[in-house]
Design brief:
It comes from Lapidilactobacillus mulanensis. Its main location: cytoplasm. Belongs to the HPF/YfiA ribosome-associated protein family. Long HPF subfamily. It holds the Pfam family Ribosom_S30AE_C. By secondary structure, the chain is of the alpha+beta class. The protein folds into 2 domains: 100 residues, Double Stranded RNA Binding Domain (2-Layer Sandwich), CATH 3.30.160; 65 residues, Sigma 54 modulation/S30EA ribosomal protein, C-terminal domain (SHC Adaptor Protein), CATH 3.30.505. It has a 4-stranded mixed beta sheet with strand order 1-2-3-4, with helices on one face. It has a 4-stranded mixed beta sheet with strand order 7-8-9-10, with helices on one face. Strands 5-6 form a two-stranded antiparallel ribbon. The protein starts with a strand and ends with a strand.
C-alpha cells in the first residue's frame, strides 16, 4: 500500500485535507497487481495573491516515477485533477507497452516487479577500497524490441539509458537520453 508524506506551504494540513488526499490517491492501487510499498510525496501550496491552490504529487516506483501537479481555485478540486492526471499517466504507459508487446507477440506488460527481468545482486556491506570498485551488479535478460519500445521502457524506469536486443538485427543495442532531451541509439557490430 502507498504511504503518504503530505506537506503544506502557506496552509495548515488539516486531518480532513490529509484524509481526502490519501483517499483519492489510494485509488491508484487498483492499477497494481501487487501492493506498492512506495511513499507518495504530496505538496499542497496556497497562493494568497491570486487565491489558487496547487497540488504536486510524486510517487517513485521501482520501474516508473509518477509526477503530476495541478492548480485551481479549490484545494479539493486540485487533488481530484492531479489524481486524474496520475491515472492517465499509468494507463498511457500500460497501453503503449501492451500495444507494442502484442505487435511483437510478447505477453502483456504488468505494472509489477522489476522491468525487463532485472535481478538485483546484493551489495557488499564493506566500505569501498577504491573509487573504481563496482558496488552494485545488475543482471538483465534482453528482450527483443525496437528502439521506440526501449525508449518507453527507459522512461518508465527513470534511467538515462537502456540496453535491449534489437528485434530486427538480433544485436545488442543501447538507447540513451541526450543532454538536449532527445534520444540516441548505439548499435553493436557483431
Amino acid at each position: 500500500m502507498l504511504s503518504f508524506n503530505v506537506r503544506g506551504e502557506n496552509i495548515e494540513v488539516t486531518e480532513a485535507i490529509r484524509n481526502y488526499v490519501e483517499k483519492r490517491i489510494s485509488k491508484l492501487n487498483k492499477y497494481f497487481e501487487e501492493p506498492q510499498d512506495s511513499i507518495a510525496h504530496v505538496n499542497l501550496k496556497v497562493y494568497p495573491a491570486d487565491k489558487t491552490s496547487k497540488v504536486e504529487v510524486t510517487i517513485p516506483l521501482p520501474y516508473l516515477v509518477l509526477r503530476a501537479e495541478e492548480t485551481s481555485p479549490d484545494m479539493y478540486a486540485s487533488v481530484d485533477l492531479v489524481t486524474d492526471k496520475l491515472e492517465r499517466q499509468i494507463r498511457k504507459y500500460k497501453t503503449k507497452i501492451n500495444r507494442k508487446s502484442r505487435e511483437k507477440g510478447i505477453k502483456d506488460f504488468e505494472l509489477t516487479g522489476p522491468a525487463n527481468g532485472a535481478v538485483d545482486v546484493p551489495e557488499k556491506e564493506e566500505q569501498p577500497k577504491d573509487e573504481m570498485e563496482v558496488v552494485r551488479t545488475k543482471r538483465v535478460s534482453l528482450k527483443p524490441m525496437d528502439s521506440e519500445e526501449a525508449i518507453l521502457q527507459m522512461d518508465m524506469l527513470g534511467h538515462n539509458f537502456f540496453i535491449f536486443e534489437d528485434a530486427e538485427t538480433n544485436g545488442t543495442s543501447i538507447v540513451y537520453r541526450r543532454r538536449d532531451g532527445r534520444y540516441g541509439l548505439i548499435e553493436t557490430d557483431e
